Structures are given as C-alpha cells and as structure tokens.
C-alpha cells in the first residue's frame, strides 16, 4: 500500500496549506498511491487555482464557464482514501 503523508508537504502551523496539499495530491496520482494521510491540525486553504473544466451551465440562464477556481482538484482517483486524524470521540483532530 502506497501512502502519501501530508507532513512531507505541509509544515504546521502555516498560513496557507493549499500549494502543499495540491502537490501531495499530484504526487499521489503520479505514484498511484492508495491513500493520503493528514496529521491532526488546522490546514488553512486560501489560494485557489484556475482549473479548466468541460462542465457547462447547470441552471437556465447560467453562463458557461470554461474554468473555475478550486482549492484542491481531486480528479482521476480510483479506490483512493483521504484519511485524517481523529480524537478519542471519532471527531476530526
């Protein structure tokens, strides 16, 4: 089982973990990883990227968007787990 550890991409605490988490997902996809693991902590996501999309308008009168701003594009994964730390009550840590 191939596991990507977020701590290898993001050092907490940090003001914006967006780029590090994006790189972790890119590496996970390139390495055909099975899982990404997040340690306990707060991961601030502030910097979106423009992502090309083939999606069209969803509602009547909506404008076609060729790209949209996203924080973490998670596309093309199969049988993949994103696992975060939990506390003794099963809540996010």
The counted number of beta strands is 5
Helix and strand pattern: EHEEEE
Strand content: 15-25%
End-to-end Cα distance: 24 Å
- How large is the radius of gyration? 16 Å
Question: How much is the average pLDDT?
Answer: 87
Main β-sheet, spatial strand arrangement: 1-2-5
Number of helices: 1
Number of domains: 1
Helix content: 10-25%
Q: Quaternary state, please? A: single chain
Overall shape: it is globular
Class inferred from helices and paired strands: alpha/beta
* Biggest sheet overview: 3 strands, parallel
> Which blocks of ≥5 consecutive residues have pLDDT under 50?
none
Describe this structure in words.
- It is built from one helix and five strands; from the N terminus they run βαββββ.
- It is α/β, with parallel strands linked by helices and 93 residues long.
- Strands 1-2-5 form a three-stranded parallel β-sheet, with helices on one face. A two-stranded antiparallel ribbon has the order 3-4.
- Helix 1 links the parallel strand 1 (3-5) and strand 2.
Brief rundown of the structure:
By secondary structure, this protein is of the alpha/beta class. It has one helix spanning 18-30; strands spanning 3-5, 35-38, 49-52, 67-70, 81-84.
Name the features.
20% strand, single chain, 93 residues, 1 helix, alpha/beta
Chart the SSEs and their pairings.
Layout: E1 3-5, H1 18-30, E2 35-38, E3 49-52, E4 67-70, E5 81-84
Parallel strand pairs: 1-2, 2-5
Antiparallel strand pairs: 3-4
């Amino acid at each position: 089982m191939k596991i990507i550890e977020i701590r290898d991409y993001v050092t907490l605490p940090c003001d914006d973990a967006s780029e590090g988490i994006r790189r972790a997902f890119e590496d996970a996809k390139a390495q055909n990883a099975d899982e990404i693991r997040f340690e306990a902590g707060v991961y601030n996501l502030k910097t979106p990227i423009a992502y090309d999309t083939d999606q069209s308008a969803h509602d009547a009168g909506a404008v076609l968007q060729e790209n949209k701003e996203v924080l973490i594009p998670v596309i093309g994964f199969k049988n993949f787990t994103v696992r975060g730390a939990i506390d003794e009550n099963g809540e996010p840590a």
